[in-house]
Amino acid sequence: xxxxxxxxxxxxxxxxxxxxxxxxxxxxxxxxxxxxxxxxxxxxxxxxxxxxxxxxxxxxxxxxxxxxxxxxxxxxxxxxxxxxxxxxxxxxxxxxxxxxxxxxxxxxxxxxxxxxxxxxxxxxxxxxxxxxxxxxxxxxxxxxxxxxxxxxxxxxxxxxxxxxxxxxxxxxxxxxxxxxxxxxxxxxxxxxxxxxxxxxxxxxxxxxxxxxxxxxxxxxxxxxxxxxxxxxxxxxxxxxxxxxxxxxxxxxxxxxxxxxxxxxxxxxxxxxxxxxxxxxxxxxxxxxxxxxxxxxxxxxxxxxxxxxxxxxxxxxxxxxxxxxxxxxxxxxxxxxxxxxxxxxxxxxxxxxxxxxxxxx
Length: 360
Fold this sequence. Notes:
The protein is of the alpha+beta class. About 30% of the residues lie in helices and about 35% in strands. It is built from four helices and 22 strands. The two termini are about 55 Å apart.
């Protein structure tokens, strides 16, 4: 073969090989691009989170049982109190005067009763000897009975006056803390008017107000998560009461949550966020996919998934799926897909089973 022919042959081979390489590169470059996402199991419900406040389960409003002018208030806001501590006292002068009057009335009634008893005993003896008439005997007996009754009333009057005097001291009904100081020294208060509000930090609960659109999803006994932002801590809680009326709560319902395993850093009055249906949220056992990725044959629904086939390249697989309900999380998939599958979410138009694609 001449040198000229050899040169032409080598040139043809080089051009042919170059052309084949270009075609292969063009085929690779022209692969359809698709977007995909990894399928994860999700909870079938949405989180229900509402704000609330920490309250003491025992939070009495203490008040005097008698009216009067406050003479002393022995505790300040935030101070600890013990059960039986005297929180405040009223001016006692009027009640001491009432007691002395009751004691004086008692002494007068007692003297009258002694005199009537003595007269009755004398007339009774004369009556038995037929020395006085029946009417005189009956009159003496009636007077004795009357003075005895007056003596009993006077005795009860002393007891009542002593109780009234005792009620001028306001005592704590619990071991706790002064949460609110309602009244001040020298203030005239009525019986039953709040003077202090007490609470205890050893028996706390969270109160949240849930809108009517969500109250039906909250059940007694369900576990919740309570986040106290002021101290950056989470606490486990349990729903113990669910309100049945929204009256006075502005179309919301009060929900009371017991706090489990609380510590001393939690305080009454703190604002919290209560995450309801915590136990259901932890059950991630459903698959939801976007509605737009579902394609239809005559009688079936299907999607495309992709299996990686090298760097940035994958192979398409057509998968028939069984669908469930449409939710705000997407379309529920009952069968056909598994956790970890790579679902094609964009570029699925005119794909074919087994087709090679470029991954974005």
